[in-house]
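Re: the multi-chain job from yesterday

Posting the exact lines I submitted so nobody has to dig through the queue logs.
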Amino acid sequence: GAVVSQHPSRVICKSGTSVKIECRSLDFQATTMFWYRQFPKQSLMLMATSNEGSKATYEQGVEKDKFLINHASLTLSTLTVTSAHPEDSSFYICSAKVRGGTDTQYFGPGTRLTVL
Amino acid sequence: QKEVEQNSGPLSVPEGAIASLNCTYSDRGSQSFFWYRQYSGKSPELIMSIYSNGDKEDGRFTAQLNKASQYVSLLIRDSQPSDSATYLCAVNKSGGYNKLIFGAGTRLAVHP
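And the result, C-alpha cells for all chains:
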C-alpha cells in the first residue's frame, strides 16, 4: 500500500523550454503532496507543499512563477518547471500523505531533469 | 542550530555488526519521527515511524525516541552490505506547518 508514482522518470530538455512532472498516489487519496529537489550529494530540499483544491505553499526562496504546482485531484499533483535553465537540472521528488492519516510521507521514485 | 542534525558519516561497520544512527532535533513540539533510507540515485523509502518515548522494533530495525533529550536513534542489527545507504531522520514541524524537516542524512557503509 501507499504507492506513489512519478512521470517521467528522466527528462532531458533544451534551455528555455518547460517541463511538466506528474506525481500520482496509486492506492490512496492524498490531500497533501510535497515537492522536493535534491542536488548531487546534498540533502532533500522542500520546494513546496501542494494541497488539493488550493494554492501551493512555497518555501522561502522558491520562485512560484518558475515552479508551477497544480493539485487538481486527490491523486494527482503536477510540477511544471517553466523556462528551464541548466541550473534547474536536479532530482525532483514528490511525496504524499494519506488523506486522514498520519504525518508519514510516502515518496515517489523521483524525476531526474537535465537541462542542456 | 539546524532543526534536525545528523552526523554525515560515513559510518563504517562490518557485516553482522550493529549500526547505530543518531539524530537530534530542536523543535520541542514535534510529535512524529521517521527514519528513511535512501540509496544512491534513488528516492527515500520509509523504514520506521515512532511517536512515543521508548523503543519500537521492526525486524532488524529498532527506533528509539527520547523526547526529553530531543533525540532519536535507529539501530540496525546484523548489518548487511545491502544496508549501505544514506539514512535520513525526519521530524514533523509543530505549529500546524504540515511538513517534515529532514536531516542531511548519515551515510552508512557495511563492509563484508
